[in-house]
Design a protein that fits this description.
- By secondary structure, this protein is α/β, with parallel strands linked by helices.
- The chain has one domain: TIM Barrel.
- The chain has 11 helices and 11 strands.
- The chain has an 8-stranded parallel barrel with strand order 1-3-4-5-6-9-10-11, surrounded by 5 helices.
- Helix 7 runs parallel beside helix 8.
- The chain is globular.
Length: 237
């Protein structure tokens, strides 16, 4: 299993991850390339970049993402507001190793199948799941679709992975739903990634034991609760 740190971009800079308040981040905010190099020095191999400006529709950080990719310190997985073929083409041309697609990919399976055929092995479909149901729009509207039905729908689509966040409406930062993730990992033909619900090394080991291929780590990695070097050493592939 591979541990994948996340950095958040806003207005051309790397900002403190969501969930960090007054804690001192393990890595400095500001220069995305510097943070990527520091993570690489700790032993990580892949980094997820979330473009919050693209996600909110207020702009994009495409140039900065290209610079981080071309710096070559880490493989780069990019997400945040990817809704069009043109965005995918730009990120692919920049050298992104994986591109995370969410809402439109779930709402328009024909579009997903089309872009995945154009870029086989590049796209990661992201889905929030609550009580085994696919959830969209800030956890409010659940689609009448079991996560395993989504896995079936994705069969044959040449994806790089399925990124699953198990959420609880009243406890948004509660632990990952291991039973659901294990079922998804067993049923899914592509690698299954998980995000959220990790606070200890044992949480990571439990996910690995259930067949999860990768864990995306946000604020927990920067808060000092986990030792980044220990995480990178144990979960590097």
């Amino acid at each position: 299993m591979i541990a994948i740190p996340t950095i958040d971009l806003r207005n051309g800079t790397c900002v403190k991850p969501a969930g960090l308040k007054n804690e001192v981040a393990a890595y400095p905010v500001g220069g995305a390339i510097g943070v990527a190099r520091a993570l690489a020095s700790d032993g990580f191999h892949r980094l997820q970049i979330i473009d919050h400006d693209s996600e909110s529709g207020s702009g994009a950080n495409a140039t900065l993402i290209q610079e981080v990719v071309r710096d070559g310190a880490l493989e780069i997985q990019v997400g945040g507001g990817v809704r069009s073929l043109e965005q995918i083409e730009r990120l692919a041309d920049a050298g992104a190793s994986r591109i995370v697609v969410g809402g439109r990919a779930l709402d328009e399976p024909d579009w997903l199948a089309h872009v995945a055929d154009l870029f086989p092995g590049l796209l990661v479909v992201s889905s929030d799941v609550r009580e085994r149901r696919v959830v969209t729009r800030g956890w409010v509207h659940g689609l009448p679709l079991d996560i395993l039905d989504l896995v079936d729908d994705l069969a044959g689509v040449p994806l790089a992975g399925l990124l699953v966040t198990t959420v609880h409406l009243d406890v948004p930062h509660s632990c990952a739903d291991l039973a659901v993730l294990e079922d998804v990992a067993e049923a899914c033909a592509c690698p299954v990634l998980s995000t959220g619900g990790v606070s200890t090394m044992d949480d990571l080991r439990a996910l690995e034991h259930r067949g999860i291929a990768g864990v995306v780590l946000g604020s927990i990695l920067y808060s000092g609760v986990l030792d980044p070097r220990a995480v990178a050493q144990e979960f590097s592939a």
